[in-house]
């Protein structure tokens, strides 16, 4: 019981520090109430809109939109964050996020084809694949955030920068994410740009509709991909356009 009381006490103290930080001073000659600066906790998620992804080959029966050896592929993202207001018009914070894009590379019982296959083998088609194969492009990021805010009565407009580190893992795997045909991973610095609209809900928090724009590009190198030859390509770490919704408390 004592341990439980101590834990609850720590939580209450931490909550009061994080969510109830008061402004340092107030004008005693003014009738304006003391404004509170609050660190807000964010839960966010959304869609990576389809963007071009370069692939070594495509299923011969694929109906995906393609251009040469590139296909349109989308995905999802999910994350958490903290924001602290320096003033009425400026916020800073920290954002953590994970996301995934994926695209079909081969179907079970079919061949796959592409320019890389022809260059390396002299044939337009690979051998028959024993299982469905997908290109999984996973990324985890930790980014700083700086937002310039334009407050209105019941909503706020904002735009900002989010520089940080992206951990990339790009693999050719079966649909069940096993049986790897090629793996690549690295860390890279990058910057994204954000715009959004906050819908205020009084003292409870806010709901935000936002877009994350731009994305760093990474060059992935594979050795003996599919047992054919080396392959490399440059792709965006995340889709250059992402649309999401976040809840802040």
How would you describe this protein?
With 249 residues, the chain is mainly β. It has a single domain, classed as Porin, CATH 2.40.160. Helices cover 10% and strands 61% of the residues. It has two helices and 15 strands. The chain has helices at residues 2-19, 115-121; strands at residues 21-22, 36-37, 40-54, 58-59, 66-67, 70-87, 90-106, 112-113, 133-151, 155-174, 182-200, 206-213, 217-225, 229-236, 241-248. The strands form four sheets. Strands 3-6-7-9-10-11-12-15 form an eight-stranded antiparallel β-barrel. A two-stranded antiparallel sheet has the order 1-2. β10 and β11 (182-200) form a beta hairpin. The radius of gyration is 24 Å and the shape is elongated. 28% of the residues are buried. Residues 1-35 have low confidence and may be disordered.
Which features does this protein show?
single chain, 249 residues, mainly beta, Porin, eight-stranded antiparallel barrel, two-stranded antiparallel sheet, 15 strands, disordered N terminus
What's the alpha carbon Rg, rounded to whole Å?
A: 24 Å
Structural domains: how many: 1
Secondary-structure element series: HEEEEEEEEHEEEEEEE
DSSP strand tally: 15
CATH topology: Porin
CATH architecture: Beta Barrel
Class per helix and strand makeup: mainly beta
Give the neighbour order of strands across the main sheet.
3-6-7-9-10-11-12-15
Distance between the termini: 30 Å
Q: Would you state the CATH class? A: Mainly Beta
* Helix run count: 2
Residue fraction in strands: over 45%
Mean pLDDT: 86
Helix content: 10-25%
Largest sheet: 8 strands, antiparallel, barrel
Low-confidence stretches: 1-35
Broad shape: elongated
